[in-house]
Amino acid sequence: xxxxxxxxxxxxxxxxxxxxxxxxxxxxxxxxxxxxxxxxxxxxxxxxxxxxxxxxxxxxxxxxxxxxxxxxxxxxxxxxxxxxxxxxxxxxxxxxxxxxxxxxxxxxxxxxxxxxxxxxxxxxxxxxxxxxxxxxxxxxxxxxxxxxxxxxxxxxxxxxxxxxxxxxxxxxxxxxxxxxxxxxxxxxxxxxxxxxxxxxxxxxxxxxxxxxxxxxxxxxxxxxxxxxxxxxxxxxxxxxxxxxxxxxxxxxxxxxxxxxxxxxxxxxxxxxxxxxxxxxxxxxxxxxxxxxxxxxxxxxxxxxxxxxxxxxxxxxxxxxxxxxxxxxx
Length: 329
Fold this sequence. Notes:
Blueprint: H1 2-12, E1 27-29, E2 39-45, H2 56-69, E3 77-81, H3 85-97, E4 100-105, H4 111-119, E5 123-126, H5 137-150, E6 154-156, H6 163-180, E7 186-190, H7 195-207, E8 212-218, E9 252-256, H8 258-272, H9 278-290, E10 302-308, H10 322-326
Helix pairs in contact: 2-3, 2-6, 6-7, 8-9
């Protein structure tokens, strides 16, 4: 009898699908990269989600909420503008729930992400024309609108305006952090759709009301009043302001160039053995600028939490490619 109970317990621990593997990513102290005594930098390794990025969280949350409310059903055709990671996450979830997915992408997408999307059965629409801000976001969204007009069962995820984007991180990322830590002074995170920084910080401020929130944006992005310009790194910055971004909830914004991001990725890998993507390098570069300006609170180091969004193997042709880095200004 005890043997049968043990067997039942072991079966109960088995996940029913890869969707149940999303979340519960580890927290790691970056003590080698940031050895300063007055700070403690803790990174949440979001690249350890099964699809390789934090975008697994909103992809799962939005699809499951849509199925629950009836906004999605077996006929639905998901259409989304993506720099790569959300597309991969949506394609992964679509395998589980039997949905069709079309990803509208641009030439900045990492080649590996494009290959993964195709292997997962996602349909690809590539836009080539830059928008009036020097990016591709507006032209991608125009293409989404064209596709929706042709597809009677089209469903636009619209990650820049969908409140379930930030709610996925409120329920997931932020909740996991507050359950694991007894205090946090500062959250620093990259911004693009702004879902992760909005949702995570809102949950964290419920437990840590004095929390300061630092956004890391790309040089050439207009999210925080920067001059529009050409950006080569996917996944950070934007050429339009997302509807879900509330800039009043952000205390500081630090702008980082593509070249600084590439160096940050390499510093993170060489010092910590963490092989992360371009926006993680942007965060490292921003921390290197920020930490010398911070003062230690009485009796303990200043605790900083950050999010490392995706894996580095998808950036071998970008930030880890010496020729690509050499052509950056």
